[in-house]
Amino acid sequence: MNNPPIKILLVEDHKLMRVGLKSLFEELSELEVTSEAQSGKEAVEKYKITHPDIVLMDIGLPDISGIEATKKILEINNNAKVIILTSHISEDEVIAALEAGACAYVLKDINIEVLKMIIKTVKEGAMWLDPQVVPILREKNCGVIPPRQMSRAMFKEQHANLTQREYEVLKLIVDGKSNNEIAQELTISEHTAKAHVCNIIQKLVVDDRTQAAVKALKEGLV
């Protein structure tokens, strides 16, 4: 038996972008745009009425910002799942969005299949950050991802199956390095770097390198 589609509230003030996203989602049976909003205040009201599974939220809206709307939606339901979908990265906006309770920060140039994956994993309780966002949080950690110091002994106890080399690769993943850049940094082949990344993803029980980076930051692994 197929699962019902994920219900999405699409919040976007630019009609062309809103129509384009909706038409893309219509081709995906797992997702359904059940309501739309052109402003932050309208988004809050639509959320009260429709109770979607996911809110896909732009930041730059004509009345209150998407960040402020996110706060208000989380006041209605602290389990609400809001994905920020924006066209640019601002350090202040990244931190403010996550402090407001957003589950993901995504850039609009993302591939639709990747966006589908993000929506599905966020609905299941995951957090997702664009790879360009992770270094910002690592350098400007203001409690969005609470740091936790971990001794090397504790690290080995909790992640004994992660090798020293994989630990080095994990630190570079957190820095936003590509497989090619990891290979150059550690003087290994790109194929070997990719293998290490795959092993880390498997051992940390996450879906991709970004979730591995988020988990590493949350658990104080780096």
Structure, described:
- By secondary structure, the protein is an alpha/beta fold.
- It folds into 2 domains: 6-129, 3-Layer(aba) Sandwich (Rossmann fold); 152-218, Arc Repressor Mutant, subunit A.
- It has helices at residues 15-26, 40-50, 66-76, 91-100, 112-123, 134-139, 152-158, 164-174, 179-186, 190-203, 209-218, and strands at 6-11, 31-37, 54-57, 82-86, 104-107, 128-129.
- A 6-stranded parallel β-sheet has the order 2-1-3-4-5-6, sandwiched between helices.
- Helix 8 packs across helix 11 (209-218) and helix 9 crosses helix 10.
- It starts with 5 loop residues before the first strand and ends with a helix.
- The relative contact order is 0.10.
Write the layout of secondary structure elements.
Elements: E1 6-11, H1 15-26, E2 31-37, H2 40-50, E3 54-57, H3 66-76, E4 82-86, H4 91-100, E5 104-107, H5 112-123, E6 128-129, H6 134-139, H7 152-158, H8 164-174, H9 179-186, H10 190-203, H11 209-218
Parallel strand pairs: 1-2, 1-3, 3-4, 4-5, 5-6
Helix pairs in contact: 2-3, 3-4, 8-10, 8-11, 9-10
Q: Key terms for this structure?
A:
222 residues; Rossmann fold; single chain; alpha/beta; 6-stranded parallel β-sheet; 6 strands; Arc Repressor Mutant, subunit A; elongated; 2 domains; 11 helices
